[in-house]
């Protein structure tokens, strides 16, 4: 289900980030490494792109893709997005594609992102967000967590968490909405029975794909 929603439009974080030659980029939850390799091309040989993933299988695939592409200014790291294995203030831009919503500790993810960004660094991710609150039934259903729905933040909550982490100028730009037809089959039958027809319809139209942006202040006293 997470792959379904990613293909449905967690958007393009590489284009969102507007990368420049010489910058250092970090992709949170880099998977097969496609966004990392695209980023590496954008920043050029004077820049670098890191990919962070927690699974050996994805890291193996990413490194295979890197070898086939012949791109050298890339490094794939094993770890969790709640504990980024990089020193403070080493990254210019953080990107991610439909991954942060899956974390159960988003406050820590955002604090870690803030920590590793250089002053003036940019947070520019694509993610699933909610336009309204969803029921506790939906939030507690593990299948919906896997589908990028139950763990998604409401738009204003996302902005609030970014500010709490130290970021400034948080923005959430909706780039795709979903119809009932788009999300058909996403909601498990068990949840449909519990929510009823109206509740299910509301849930199916409550989430959107968005660009989420914020900036680390150039002068920080944290």
What does this structure look like?
The chain is an alpha/beta fold. It has one domain: Rossmann fold (3-Layer(aba) Sandwich), CATH 3.40.50. 38% of the residues lie in helices and 26% in strands. It has 9 helices and 8 strands. The protein has helices spanning 2-9, 13-17, 34-43, 56-69, 106-116, 136-139, 142-146, 155-165, 189-204; strands at 24-28, 48-53, 74-78, 91-96, 117-130, 153-154, 168-177, 207-215. Strands 1, 2, 3, 4, 5, 6, 7 and 8 form an 8-stranded mixed β-sheet that branches. α4 links the parallel β2 (48-53) and β3 (74-78). The protein starts with a helix and ends in a 7-residue tail after the last strand. The model is unreliable at 1-9 (pLDDT under 50).
Distance between the termini: 39 Å
Calculate the mean pLDDT score and round it: 83
CATH architect. name: 3-Layer(aba) Sandwich
CATH top level label:
Alpha Beta
The quaternary organization reads as single chain
Structural class: alpha/beta
Strand count, sense and barrel status of the largest sheet are: 8 strands, mixed
Q: List how many beta strands DSSP finds.
A: 8
The run of helices and strands is HHEHEHEEHEHHEHEHE
Computed CA radius of gyration, to the nearest angstrom:
17 Å
Low-confidence stretches: 1-9
Overall 3D form: globular
What name does the CATH topology carry?
A: Rossmann fold
Helix content: 25-40%
Tally of alpha and pi helices? 9
Q: What's the structural domain tally?
A: 1
- Find the CATH superfamily: Vaccinia Virus protein VP39
Strand content: 25-35%
């Amino acid at each position: 289900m997470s792959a379904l929603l990613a293909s449905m439009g967690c958007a393009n974080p590489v284009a969102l980030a507007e990368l420049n030659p010489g910058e250092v980029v970090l992709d949170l939850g880099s998977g097969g490494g496609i966004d990392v390799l695209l980023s590496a091309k954008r920043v050029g040989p004077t820049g670098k792109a890191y990919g962070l993933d927690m699974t050996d299988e994805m890291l193996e695939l990413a490194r295979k893709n890197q070898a086939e592409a012949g791109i050298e200014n890339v490094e794939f790291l094993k770890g969790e997005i709640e504990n980024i294995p990089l020193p403070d203030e080493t990254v210019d831009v953080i990107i991610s594609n439909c991954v942060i919503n899956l974390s159960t500790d988003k406050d820590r993810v955002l604090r870690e992102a803030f920590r590793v960004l250089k002053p003036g660094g940019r947070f520019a991710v694509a993610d699933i967000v909610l336009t309204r609150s969803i029921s506790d039934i939906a939030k507690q259903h593990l299948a919906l967590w896997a589908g990028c729905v139950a763990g998604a933040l409401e738009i204003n909550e996302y902005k609030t968490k970014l500010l709490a982490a130290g970021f400034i100028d948080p923005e959430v730009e909706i780039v795709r909405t979903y119809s009932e037809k788009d999300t058909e089959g996403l909601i498990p039958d068990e949840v449909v029975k519990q929510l009823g027809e109206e509740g299910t319809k509301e849930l199916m139209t409550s989430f959107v794909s968005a660009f989420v942006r914020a900036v680390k202040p150039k002068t920080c006293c944290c």
